[in-house]
Design brief:
Layout (H helix, E strand, L loop, with lengths): L2 E5 L20 E2 L2 E2 H11 L4 E6 L6 H5 L8 E6 L5 H8 L11 E6 L2 E3 L3 H11 L3 E7 L7 E2 L12 E2 L11 E10 H4 L10 H11 L4 E5 L4 E3 L3 H13 L14 E3 L4 E2 L4 E3 L2 E3 L4 E2 L4 E3 L2 E2 L4 E2 L4 E3 L2 E2 L4 E2 L4 E3 L2 E2 L4 E2 L4 E3 L3 E2 L4 E2 L11
Parallel strand pairs: 1-4, 1-6, 4-5, 8-12, 14-17, 15-18, 16-19, 17-20, 18-21, 19-22, 20-23, 21-24, 22-25, 23-26, 24-27, 25-28, 26-29, 27-30
Antiparallel strand pairs: 2-3, 6-11, 7-13, 8-11, 9-10
Helix pairs in contact: 3-6
Family: Belongs to the transferase hexapeptide repeat family.
Organism: Streptomyces albireticuli
Protein name: GDP-mannose pyrophosphorylase
Length: 360
């Protein structure tokens, strides 16, 4: 297998304000746009042609990645005029594929950080003679996900969307967001209208007697759909818990990009990233957080499990704990924001104006 479809069209609503100016796959994780990690892992698995299915802020992708040659890839871009859902997006880019009808095509989502063995998924698909194969992972609480029970041979027996009662939870296996399709199956997806692979394509194939195979791979897996998950994923990449050949530096407690300035007595721990041109002043402590390009953390500030947007400023002695600060926002001195607080892009918070903020 040498080609793939990467679905990067979502609006990233749950990640706002991070995605107000930047599409979700382009938000930096461990020093580079998250999409870079996915492309690098696909290339390492032997894929050389990837079609990006874009929609929201579609104009951002190609100027950054170009034709993909810098990553050893050939990239192409197809933009949806109207949102088409996962299945519709896959069908919308089919004309760019080079595969024959029986060839496998990898499909993956632009918001999943995973250690999936891509080659093993393709091998499973070929060995089973499947029409579609799905990466499955196990989670402790599957209620927020689509359940995918399988028989003893790994063949999918049903698709159960977001069960709520104990009787509905028949397995801890969930759809992990990476698939291998035979090209001929892609061509059967209806054109020109929204289609959900989870709710329409997969159940329809199963009802028609198609062979859908599941492969459970319980290595690292994280849905980066919320700011808290995104910050955690970036930290895990920096610390080496999540695998990626695209991390621009050695794994460890911190990643400080070129042109960033960090005071000698500032403490950076827990997989913290300090972006290019950012500045961390004396006595500041930053733990498990992402500080994007050009942001400033002033003296004595404490930043934990938070994301500070590009060009934002965090005032002296201010405490952030589980907070998200939008691009260009300014938080005055002696504030305290905790428990999922979100400050919009360009907002201004005066000194000592907030001592505690929660979204609960």
């Amino acid at each position: 297998m040498t080609e793939a479809i990467l679905l990067v069209g979502g609006k990233g609503t749950r990640l706002r304000p991070l995605t107000m100016n930047t599409p979700k796959p382009m938000v930096p994780a461990a020093g580079v746009p998250f999409l870079t990690h996915q492309l690098a892992r696909a290339r390492a698995a032997g894929i050389d042609h990837i079609v990006l299915a874009t929609s929201y802020l579609a104009e951002v992708f190609e100027p950054y990645f170009g034709d993909g040659s810098a990553l050893g890839l050939h990239l192409e871009y197809v933009t949806e005029k109207e949102p088409l859902g996962t299945g519709g997006a896959i069908r919308n880019v089919a004309a760019k594929l080079r595969s024959g009808p029986d060839d496998p095509v990898l499909i993956f989502n632009g918001d999943i950080l995973t250690g999936l063995d891509i080659e093993a998924l393709v091998d499973t698909h070929r060995t089973a003679g499947a029409d579609v194969s799905l990466h499955l992972t196990r989670v402790a609480d599957p209620r927020a996900f689509g359940l995918v029970p399988t028989d003893p041979d790994g063949r999918v027996t049903a698709f159960l969307e977001k069960p709520q009662t104990p009787e509905e939870i028949v397995t801890d296996q969930i759809n992990a967001g990476a698939y291998v399709f035979n090209r001929s199956v892609i061509d059967t997806i209806p054109e020109g209208r929204p289609v959900s692979v989870e709710r329409e394509t997969f159940p329809g194939l199963l009802a028609a007697g198609a062979h859908l195979q599941g492969m459970v791979d319980s290595t690292y897996w994280l849905d980066l759909g919320t700011p808290q998950a995104f910050v955690r994923g970036s930290a895990d990449l920096v610390m080496g818990r999540a695998p990626s050949p695209a991390v621009p530096g050695r794994c460890g407690d911190r990643l400080v990009l070129d042109t960033a300035e960090v005071a000698p007595d500032a403490k950076l721990t827990g997989g913290t990233v300090i972006g290019a041109g950012a500045r961390v002043a004396p006595g500041a402590e930053v733990d498990g957080s992402t500080v994007l390009d050009g942001a400033v953390i002033e003296a004595g500030a404490q930043v934990r499990d938070s994301l500070v947007g590009a060009g934002a400023r965090i005032g002296a002695r201010t405490v952030l704990d589980g907070a998200v600060i939008g691009d260009g926002a300014e938080i005055g001195a002696d504030n305290e924001l905790r428990a999922g607080a979100r400050i919009w892009c360009g907002a201004r918070i005066p000194d000592a104006a907030i001592r505690f903020s929660s979204d609960q």
